[in-house]
Amino acid sequence: MLKYFTYNIIFTAIHASVLPELEINWLHHSLLWVALGLLLIFIVLRFKEKKQKEKLQNLLIQQQLEFQTHQKNIEQQNKMLLHVNEEKDNFINILTHNLKTPISQVVGLADILKVDLPHISREQAEYLSLIQDTAMRMDKMITNLLCIEAIEAKKSNINIEPVNLIPVLQNIIRQFDVLTQRKDISLTLNTRSHDYKAQVDANYYTQIIENLISNAIKFSPAHATIVIDIYDEQNRIVTCVRDHGPGISKEDQKKLFRKFQKLSAKPTGGEASTGLGLSIVQKFTEVMNGEVSVDSKLNQGTTVSVKFEKVKPILQTSF
What we know:
The chain has 319 residues and is of the alpha+beta class. It has helices at 2-115, 122-152, 165-175, 177-182, 202-218, 250-253, 277-287; strands spanning 161-164, 186-191, 197-200, 225-233, 236-242, 291-297, 301-309.
């Protein structure tokens, strides 16, 4: 019994001295493996992050190269378009200037021939009038083209000043007497005053109204009425040309104001149409800081309105 008790004491003493050392070593090894595992995970994550960054950088570089390539292509195309546009402008300028002189000569020769009108037949007189009208229409179209090109090139000699629009409108209406008589069309001016002053270029305003009236006559049936309304609207002077023609469809209204754009509606008297009228109206209106609008319904006619800055009256002070 004493022997067993002695062995037990020795075993307990050995266990008490060795076991803590083994547990500590195991704990150290466990912590070491955990640290190595965490380090390995960190290295793997950093490696993946680096690869991801490299991939994104390569993708960004590729996109930048593609963007630069597209940008160069766009710049080259823009240069080509600018060159083509310059060539087009030069061609139009050369063509219009070269055509203007002979057309003016045709108009002048027709005037000379009219002096001998009593000595020519009625048929010859009609042909002579047709030649003169055609030449004058071509001359007007060339003038309009030159004006449009000048505005687009920002080379127009515009002179905006206070202008009383009533005498200008009355003069324009008189110029259309022959055309309105041919189709028995009534052209009237509605105004509440004889003094509507606006900040415009008188020549440009004249061409705007001439184009609007010309379009209204072309697309109005015989015996129709075309009305020109003028009135003030707050700080604007509004001029409206209202006809009772076929109107403009919704699809055609999207095409308005484009150069050489012909719409589905046809002139009622077989008149020629270049598709420049409303384009001229828009450009001339905008260059004078005005506004243009169109109100039209099929089979109910069309109203085109232009608005320009109203001239403020000068207040006289008494002393």
